[in-house]
Specification:
- The chain has 28 helices and no strands.
- The protein is mainly α.
- The longest helix is centred in the middle third of the chain and has 29 residues.
- Keywords: Cell membrane, Membrane, Transmembrane, Transmembrane helix.
């Protein structure tokens, strides 16, 4: 296991090698260069405008296929130029400006219906509109201002595309490395279940939260690999390598998911001999090893496989054999010992999969993709940009529509307040509202808190810097660091991003000779005013509470687990294993599990009065995670023993009953029909097995799944949303 010092070093290395830091460098360079160059010719104001255009183009330039990024940057440049032009003309009348704010805030907030990348185009447009409010210019100056913004957008687009052409696989490597590291973190959390005195509920919560992050990373990698022509359509060595590693990492994650047992029972039986502590140690070492693979991907190096791990696993196996022979006494149940054997086998399989991934680094040229690995269309989502989707969401039942109305009204209120008082930079109130308000109340609340904390701390830091540092070159170096920090953390940690952004703004205004103390006070006041308006509006004006849409998420979770279970169980009843349909449904399980965990997290951040059935939903999440894990265990057995699956009498009846239980759980949530209590029960398996019979392990897994399905039904009865 790694020490705390090494862990801190790894976290720093992980961040520096990540796409977040790469984005920060690119955006900082793209936004700073125009101002630096033009300032040398006495054209600093023009340079700042060009930099604004570059900054706007950078907003939708998030990880993804280069075609999507390129199109988004060019569309953003076009849209912000039009918005800049119209805002410049509307500045002639406060009433026209109010109408413009109302209309644009609604239209650009509605772009959330098309996903985050398109929504970020709306964010860029609102940014230009907000910064242009009150800047009265002549007709020719408005045209020139718009042209400078276009120039900045085109400059940044050219920069980003050029960097991609130079390093076409870099972003995919970074994202895949991030994904592998997150899977390692997931395994580290699971290792915590073997620790004596573990708080199971707290660890389950951490596990579900981590699963959300794993799913996000997997989707990001999937988009980068399977939507990039250079990777899936061209027979490049690097492209084949990345796809093969990703496929193996997905299989490895499934292997980790399948290691799920009644940890409380295991601790009661085996804590006294310390064998669970050995399991924890080995799993932590495996997670360290997997993390090393992630770092190697991001640094483009080769990971080193630990020589100690095979010995640790072998020692663990010997301990279990000693336990079987009775060397630790005979007070242990055979079922408990068998569970330890199953976990040990799973640990061995995890090690072999990691070893296989390591092998890909050593011999990239010899690797070839199979046909199944290149059938990527099944595993990627396709964006729809039809106007019909926009039109269908123009109703109060749509969360995005309510959000768009809320943003437009609140932006108008913020504008009226700003016009009513003599603020130095009244558009900062609108800027605060714009970046804080999100469709969900919990996200708005979190964003509000982070911006307030980041602004206050950042303002204090910025004023301290200006008080202590007088050398211009030193101040410029600090400005660069703050700028880099702000753009590097904007997708990773918003509060840190704001903390860096505030000193950057204060130092910039000081360079421009526009004062610092007044700016400091103004920045804090505007953040408090804008944040307060946004928070109150999210709470009282067309609010969006998680319980209003949670029923759909719960039903979808049962639905996909039912489909997953049905798919795998049929392999035990004669249907031939087919990799593609199986992996499609497995992907859906991961996605919907993450959706459920995200919804639970958001509800947990809402007011207590809105947290309906919170304990029951938490238990529902844990049970469905347990269901997925048990099914994954059955699936892995099928893949490893395709030709020797034993026929078990009565198993099909139990599988059908489990499916019935899950169906009734869905009906209970939907409230389509009432279920008679005596119609539902757990069926026993009418078959006797020998203790060393492999069929017994399969039968026990089906019985456990039936019990979990019954528990899911019972908890579904208690959920009221």
């Amino acid at each position: 296991m790694i020490s705390k010092t090494q862990q801190t070093t790894n976290e720093i290395k992980n961040f520096v090698l990540s796409s977040y830091f790469g984005d920060g460098l690119r955006i900082t360079f793209g936004a700073l260069v125009p101002s630096l160059i033009l300032s040398q010719f006495g054209l600093l104001q023009i340079g700042i405008t060009v930099s604004l255009g570059a900054l706007c183009a950078s907003i939708p330039d998030t990880p993804g296929p280069i075609t999507h990024r390129r199109n988004a940057m060019l569309v953003t440049t076009l849209v912000v130029s039009i918005v800049s032009l119209l805002t410049g003309f509307a500045n002639a009348s406060v009433y026209l400006l109010g109408i413009l704010i109302l209309v644009f805030s609604f239209l650009f907030s509605m772009l959330y219906v098309y996903g985050n990348r398109i929504a970020s185009i709306g964010t860029a447009a609102l940014l230009v509109m907000t910064l242009g409010i009150g800047d009265i210019r002549s007709f020719s100056e408005i045209l020139l201002y718009t042209l400078y913004i276009i120039a900045g957008g085109l400059w940044y687009s050219a920069l980003s595309i050029s960097l991609y052409e130079i390093m076409p696989y870099r972003l995919a490597q970074q994202s895949l490395g991030d994904c592998v590291i997150e899977v390692a973190h997931f395994m580290r959390i699971k290792a915590g279940f073997y620790k004596e005195g573990m708080d199971y509920d707290k660890n389950y919560k951490k596990l579900l939260e981590c699963q959300v992050l794993v799913n996000e990373k997997q989707n990001a990698v999937r988009d980068l690999l399977f939507k990039s022509r250079e990777i899936v359509r061209e027979s490049t060595q690097q492209g084949r390598f990345l796809v093969i590693v990703f496929v193996d990492v997905m299989d490895l994650f499934e292997q980790i998911m399948s290691t799920f047992y009644s940890y409380q029972t295991l601790h009661k039986q085996f804590d006294e001999i310390g064998i669970l502590k050995q399991f924890e140690t080995v799993l932590l070492q495996l997670s360290d090893q997997l993390e090393e693979v992630g770092y190697a991907l991001k640094a483009d190096t080769k990971p080193q496989l630990s020589l100690r791990l095979p010995r640790e696993i072998r020692d663990l196996k010997l301990e279990i054999e000693a336990l079987e022979r009775g060397e630790y006494g005979t007070n242990f149940k055979e079922s408990g010992v068998q569970a330890l054997k199953n976990i040990e086998v799973n640990v061995e399989n995890i090690f072999h999969r990691i070893k296989k991934i390591n092998g890909h680094f050593k011999d990239r040229k010899a690797r070839k993709l199979t046909k199944s690995q290149t059938q990527s269309a099944y595993f990627i989502s396709h964006e729809e940009y039809e106007f019909s989707l926009f039109r269908e969401n123009l109703a109060l039942k749509s969360e995005i529509f309510r959000h768009a109305i809320r943003v437009s009204v609140v932006m108008l209120i913020g504008f009226i307040i700003a016009q009513s008082y003599n603020f130095l930079h009244s558009n900062w109130i609108l800027l605060t509202i714009m970046v804080i308000m999100k469709p969900a109340f919990s996200l708005t609340k979190e964003r509000n808190y982070h911006r307030l904390i980041g602004t206050i701390i950042g303002a204090i830091v910025g004023m301290s810097i200006l008080s202590w540092v007088e050398d211009g070159k030193a101040l410029f170096a600090i400005l660069l660091i703050c700028m880099l920090g702000a753009y590097s953390f904007q997708r990773k940690n918003y509060v840190v991003s704001v903390l860096f952004m505030t000193p950057f703004i204060l130092i910039l205004y000081d360079f421009l000779g526009m004062g610092s103390r007044a700016i400091f006070i103004e920045r804090v006041y505007d953040t408090i005013i804008g944040g307060s308006i946004a928070f109150i509006a999210s709470h009282v004006f067309l609010p969006s509470w998680e319980h209003q849409k949670l029923k759909t998420v719960l039903v979808e979770m049962i639905e996909v687990n039912l489909a997953y279970y049905h798919q795998v169980s049929t392999y035990y009843f004669g249907q031939q294993y087919d990799k593609i349909p199986y992996k499609i449904i497995r992907k859906e399980v991961y996605v919907r599990s993450a959706n459920l965990a995200s919804a639970f997290q958001r509800m947990f951040s809402e007011p207590k009065s809105k947290q309906l059935s919170i304990k029951e939903i938490h238990k529902f999440s844990v049970l469905n995670h347990l269901m997925s894990s048990y099914v994954a265990t059955l699936a892995l057995y099928v893949m490893e023993h395709r030709e020797e699956i034993p026929a078990i009498e009565g198993l099909k009846e139990i599988a059908s009953n489990s499916e019935k239980l899950l169906n009734e759980a869905m009906m209970t949530l939907i409230k389509d029909e009432n279920v008679a209590e005596n119609d539902l029960k757990i069926l026993p398996l009418k078959h006797v097995f020998k203790e060393d019979d492999d069929a017994l392990l399969i039968a026990e897994q089906f019985i456990d799944l039936q019990k979990v399905a019954f528990d899911i039904y019972k908890i579904s009865e208690k959920i009221k949303v």
